[in-house]
Structures are given as structure tokens and as C-alpha cells.
Specification:
By secondary structure, the chain is an alpha/beta fold. It has 3 domains: 186 residues, Carbamate kinase (3-Layer(aba) Sandwich), CATH 3.40.1160.10; 37 residues, no CATH class; 80 residues, Acetylglutamate kinase-like (Carbamate kinase, 3-Layer(aba) Sandwich). The chain is 39% helix and 23% strand. An 8-stranded mixed β-sheet has the order 3-9-2-1-12-16-17-15, sandwiched between helices. It has a 4-stranded mixed β-sheet with strand order 8-4-10-11. Strand 10 and strand 11 form a beta hairpin. It is globular, with a radius of gyration of 20 Å.
Length: 317
């Protein structure tokens, strides 16, 4: 074990995209290179690391390509669990290669491995009865109705009057490849795992696994990983330097530190909406409940400063 211990660091999928004008793979690679420089700073300081990442935009791109290829060329469509696996491989490759290049530049003798990770969810999770997570391309109402009848999709209308497919977002229960991740970390390997929250699978009574059309929140999966690894630190890398109360509203207040009890109270007061900071606070509280350690929330560029206590939001039990 390194001198600082083990940290689980969650990188958001959106944080690999600078803006809507720069969405290409080379654009994402360039942003990942910057992020990996900040992650390498942690490793140089003596942290062992399990790195997780989001994949929301990237899975959306895969689905869009699949839908266009199906419509134009009659190609088979890619199931959602395979889209998750594809994105784990591609983003794992991107982060892994950039980290290896950064280590070589710094003359750090560390290795990196990506683990394509399955995460078990309960088939009777209430989320399966009420799909809410929009994915894929926008559609007209007629196209959406055709998909409902032909493919059994659940659909919902968005704020622009377009229609999107919606899928369940069940809670993660078990990381299938956890033992492999542990062995890699024990061997000193920087490990990229539970990408995009993990590939959602259900388990039958004989222990057989099968993929399901769903998505898992990557913050919840990262918190589960941090809990099961008994990580010394859970660092959530997101799009803002600090957590705020009344975010983008009159009276906005940046928060440097808060206890788990304060975070829970602010959450119930509505300061952390479901579509933004809410899942991150929920994930932080879950991890703190089972470990009593420390959570830091900040953006990639400020990871080093946050570790020194100069910025970011620290939440402690």
C-alpha cells in the first residue's frame, strides 16, 4: 500500500467533453490527457488509485450511430448493455494510454489496467417499473409510437416537444469483477473500473448473469466500489470547483467543508437537484455511512489543490 493509501476517483463522462463544438474522439482524447495529468499528480504524491468514469455522452453517440446505421443500411442495432461495454473499452483505452504516457514522461514506474466491469442490479428494482433516464436520439411523436409498438420501448417527451427513449436506472448491488480489481490494486496496478456505472446485469437463481437494458448512475457505482474497497478517500471529479448552496440562484454560497449531517440536511432542503449534484451527494453519504472516511468534490484541474485543502468541498462523517 502506498504512503497515502487508496483513493477511488470518479471522473464524469461530461468532463471529457469541453463543449458542444468539440465532440470528436480526438477532442475527447485531448481533454482526457489533461485530466490524466491531474490524476498522475495524485499518484506521484503517493496514492494508489481505482479510477472510474462516466459514459453518458459517449453511449449516446454509440446509440446514435447504431440507429442511423439501422435506418440507412439495415444494420443490426446495438443493445444498450453492449453500448456500455463498448464505451468502457474505448474510454478505458483513452484514460489508460494517457496515464501510461504521463507516467513515462514523469519516469514513474506504474502500470494501468482497464477492467470491463459488470454490476449486478435487482430485477425487481422499482426503477424497472418507471424508466426515467433518456438515451439515444430525439424522435417525432410518430417515430416514438412506432418504437413503442415495434421494440417495446418506453418513451417520454422532452422540454423541446421531441421524444426520447427512456430506460431504468436501478441501484448497483454487487460488482462482479471486484476480486479482480482488488488483486490488481494489491499488485500496485492503477485500475480503471465500473466505467459508466458498470454494465448492468441481473443474476438468476443459478448465478447466471445476463445484461439488461438499463443504465447505472456512475456516482452510485463509484461509491459502492469505494465502500467495498474500504478506500481511504472518495474523490468525485465533476464540472465545478466546489459544491454550492443555491447554485446559480440569488444568494449562492460556495461550500468548503460540511459534515455528512449537514450535507443530508442541505440535500433534503433541495440544494442538490437530481440532475446535477444530487447523485454525487447521495453517493458521498452512502460511502461515509460505511467507512467514516473523507469525500472531496472538485473539478479535474483542481484535484491537487483540493488534496492540499486549498479548494474543493470536503465532506466528512
Amino acid at each position: 500500500m502506498s504512503k497515502n493509501g487508496l483513493a477511488v476517483v470518479g471522473v464524469g463522462g461530461n468532463s471529457l467533453i469541453r463543449d458542444r463544438a468539440r465532440l470528436t474522439v480526438p477532442d475527447q482524447y485531448a481533454v482526457a490527457k489533461e485530466t490524466c495529468g491531474h490524476v498522475a499528480d495524485m499518484i506521484a504524491q503517493g496514492w494508489d488509485l481505482a479510477l472510474s468514469h462516466g459514459n453518458g455522452p459517449q453511449v449516446g453517440f454509440i446509440l446514435r450511430r447504431s440507429e442511423i446505421a439501422h435506418k440507412v443500411a439495415g444494420m443490426h442495432e446495438v443493445p444498450l448493455d453492449f453500448c456500455g461495454a463498448d464505451s468502457q473499452g474505448a474510454l478505458g483505452y483513452t484514460l489508460q494510454q494517457n496515464l501510461c504516457n504521463e507516467f513515462r514522461r514523469r519516469r514513474l514506474t506504474r502500470t494501468v489496467a482497464t477492467v470491463v466491469t459488470q454490476v449486478v442490479v435487482h430485477g425487481d428494482d422499482p426503477a424497472f417499473e418507471k424508466p426515467t433516464k433518456p438515451i439515444g436520439s430525439s424522435m417525432t411523436k410518430q417515430e416514438a409510437q412506432e418504437r413503442v409498438e415495434k421494440s417495446g420501448w418506453a418513451v417520454a417527451e422532452d422540454d423541446d416537444g421531441r421524444w426520447r427513449r427512456v430506460v431504468p436506472s436501478p441501484y448497483p448491488q454487487r460488482i462482479v469483477e471486484l476480486d479482480a480489481v482488488k488483486k490488481l490494486l494489491e499488485a500496485g496496478v492503477i485500475t480503471i473500473t465500473v466505467g459508466g456505472g458498470g454494465i448492468p446485469v441481473v443474476e438468476d437463481e443459478d448465478g447466471n448473469l445476463s445484461g439488461v437494458e438499463a443504465v447505472i448512475d456512475k456516482d452510485y457505482a463509484s461509491a459502492l466500489l469505494a465502500r467495498r474497497l474500504q478506500a481511504d478517500l472518495f474523490l468525485i471529479s465533476t464540472g465545478v470547483e466546489k459544491v454550492a448552496l443555491n447554485y446559480k440562484k440569488p444568494g449562492q454560497i460556495w461550500v468548503d467543508r460540511m459534515t455528512a449531517e449537514e450535507a443530508r440536511r442541505y440535500y433534503h432542503e433541495g440544494h442538490f437537484p437530481p440532475g446535477s449534484m444530487g447523485p454525487k451527494i447521495e453517493a458521498a453519504l452512502y460511502y461515509l455511512k460505511y467507512t467514516g472516511n473523507r469525500v472531496i468534490i472538485t473539478d479535474p484541474a483542481n484535484i491537487t489543490r483540493a488534496l492540499r485543502g486549498e479548494t474543493g468541498t470536503v465532506i466528512e462523517g
